[in-house]
Amino acid sequence: MSDEQALIDAARAVRDNAWAPYSRFRVGAALRTSSGSMHVGCNVENATYGATVCAERNAVAAAVAAAERSFEEIAIVTDTSPPAMPCGICRQVLAEFGPDLRIISTNLSGEVARTTIGELLPSAFSGADLCDDRPR
Q1: Which helix (H) or strand (E) holds 15?
Q2: Residue numbers annotated as active site
Q3: pLDDT tens-digit profile of 30-73?
Q4: Share of the chain above pLDDT 90, in %
Q5: Residue 77 lies in a domain
Q6: Alpha-carbon span 74 to 42, nearest angstrom
Q7: CA-CA distance, 130 to 8, in Å (whole number)?
């Protein structure tokens, strides 16, 4: 099995754990780091909607909690055609870790779309946009 397929399979499996009682839009994500480790996340909805956390951000949080900071690729699994790409907030969070992050978006039917976060969010706001003389 290829590394990409293993990532997709992990995202598909964790999608089953999503908490999506309101939208019924279940998403799974699997993030591979430069060290080769994999971290997964699923979306967790909340009745107040604004407290909902997407699968991609949950995967990033799991990786960061494991002291990982360098990401190679993320697989996202939904049940939409065409496969869904990360939302705007997730794009910004993923861009924090570099524009070369590869994105593999797929659905339960096997359709696949590939891109990078730099292509999805050109000119992203980054730490370089913050001034160095801010109060600490």
Answers
A1: helix 3-15
A2: 56
A3: 999 999 999 999 999 999 999 999 999 999 999 999 999 999 99
A4: 89
A5: yes
A6: 13
A7: 35
